[in-house]
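Input record, target 12 of the design panel.
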């Protein structure tokens, strides 16, 4: 990975963190705030592979932990898991297409919301997710679809990723 590509990835991660904390992050859908950071994590996993997805998930999870009232590290655990899972699903025998990216993106963002709820439940913490879990999952599914349809192609173009220059982690299982 070249130095300029690393700088671009760092700037993208910071941009998504700023997006989450901006006025755009205060918008509510069905009483739920969309989580741009987990959708961005899944997008990085889809584009860059499982290792980059896990690292991006850990960093974006630390950002999310600094914004919320959940114990520090919980979001990092969940986001890193979802980033790795998205990258892992891309490595398997799934064909490379936008439809598959949308399905994997939606499944991983929605699954991330469910996993976050489960981890908080295991820790004995009550959160707002208890009352609005279905709404939160639906909003995150929509965010995963939007990120896979709109932002993933833009990020691929920005990073100049073509079909022939897939990251090494996505070439073989």
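The sequence produced for target 12 reads:
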């Amino acid at each position: 990975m070249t130095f300029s590509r690393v700088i671009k990835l760092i700037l993208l991660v910071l941009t998504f963190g700023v997006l989450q904390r901006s006025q755009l992050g205060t918008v509510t859908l069905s009483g739920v705030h969309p989580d741009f950071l987990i959708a961005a994590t899944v997008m990085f996993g889809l584009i860059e592979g499982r290792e980059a997805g896990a690292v991006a998930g850990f960093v974006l999870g630390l950002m999310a932990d600094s914004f919320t009232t959940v114990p520090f590290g919980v979001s990092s655990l969940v986001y890193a898991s979802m980033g790795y899972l998205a990258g892992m699903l891309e490595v398997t025998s799934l064909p490379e297409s936008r439809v598959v990216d949308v399905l994997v993106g939606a499944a991983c963002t929605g699954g991330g919301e469910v996993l976050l709820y489960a981890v908080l439940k295991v820790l004995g913490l009550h959160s707002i997710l208890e009352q609005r879990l279905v709404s939160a999952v639906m909003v995150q599914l929509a965010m995963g679809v939007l990120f896979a349809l709109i932002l993933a192609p833009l990020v691929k173009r920005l990073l100049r990723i073509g079909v022939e220059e897939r990251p090494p982690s996505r070439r073989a299982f």
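The chain has a mean pLDDT of 81.
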